[in-house]
Amino acid sequence: MDNSLTYLFITALSYPFIALYNAGAASFRTSQNLRFPMAIAFGSNILNILGNIFFIFTLNLGVAGAALSTLLSRIINAAIILILLKQPKQDLYIDSYLCIRPKFQGIQQILKIGIPTGIENGTFQFGKLVIQSTVSTMGTTAIAAQAMVAMLESFACQASIGIGLGMMSIVGKCVGAKEYEQARHYTILLTKCAWIACFICCATILFPIKQITSLAGMEAESAKLAIWLTRIVFTYKMIFWTPYFLPSYGSKAAGDVKFSMITSTLPMWICRVVVTIFLVHTFHMGPLAVWIGMGADWTIRSFIFLARFKSNKWLEHKVI
């Protein structure tokens, strides 16, 4: 617990710098400059790895060293993005940070989007914590297998998430220009692209899954369970994950954030949390219960978001 508190306290100091970086990166993405945010994020990860090696193995700082490395990399991230935003050669740039003054009308418009999205993300993370607490009671074999599958599942959707971030910028511009048919067109097109990307990523992991678990040094029993779960989860993910996840980016870009918040929060608590706990404690299904709950969540949200998209009600909001 002491190590957890140490890590939390140090990394919490980096939250303002994450906000600065995200704001700056969003400015570059809006001006269709994706190269700078990608390069900064890549360099930050390399710096974080080198920092971990230095602080943990050279200075023997342990958990505090890992947290310090994360803090420093995020500070450097924010500093670089702020310096780049002052370059006049950029499409969007800032003359002087000292001249920035709050515009409360604009802040209010941003909060109308940001607060529901923040509530959605916050409740989602809290739900993950509840599920993780349930998994921690299953024994070391199940915990190791669940950790491996969760890591692989997260990796398999990164390409699709990147497409989703691009969708927000594109659909937002279309809606702002009142080109609603273009917004529908690009939402459909990018969802198909994300579906293909998700399929390729899942297949890339599924075929060498035995070698991946072997490379990770997992024990035979944990590896066997992880392989079995990965095959089930990824097969289902290739079908149902994209139809729920990608259209939500389009609806958020159009300002339909309250619907997204409600639709994402309720199924998450009902399916992921309640169903998982019920299956674990009643039928003793182990980590499979987690993925049954998650699969039910994906399925319900897919149908809801597709119905919302088809109704065009997500295009009836005015952000600015």
Features:
single chain; 320 residues; mainly alpha; 2 domains
Describe the structure.
With 320 residues, this protein is an all-alpha fold. It has 2 domains: 100 residues; 211 residues, no CATH class. The model has no long low-confidence stretch (mean pLDDT 90).
User: How many E strands?
Assistant: 0
* Main sheet record: none
Low-confidence stretches: none
- H/E series, N to C? HHHHHHHHHHHH
Give a concise summary:
Belongs to the multi antimicrobial extrusion (MATE) (TC 2.A.66.1) family. With 320 residues, the chain is mostly helical.
SSE blueprint:
Elements: H1 2-12, H2 15-30, H3 35-58, H4 63-85, H5 104-135, H6 140-156, H7 158-176, H8 180-206, H9 209-215, H10 220-253, H11 257-283, H12 288-311
Helix pairs in contact: 1-4, 2-4, 3-4, 5-11, 6-8, 6-10, 7-8, 7-10, 8-10, 9-10, 10-12, 11-12
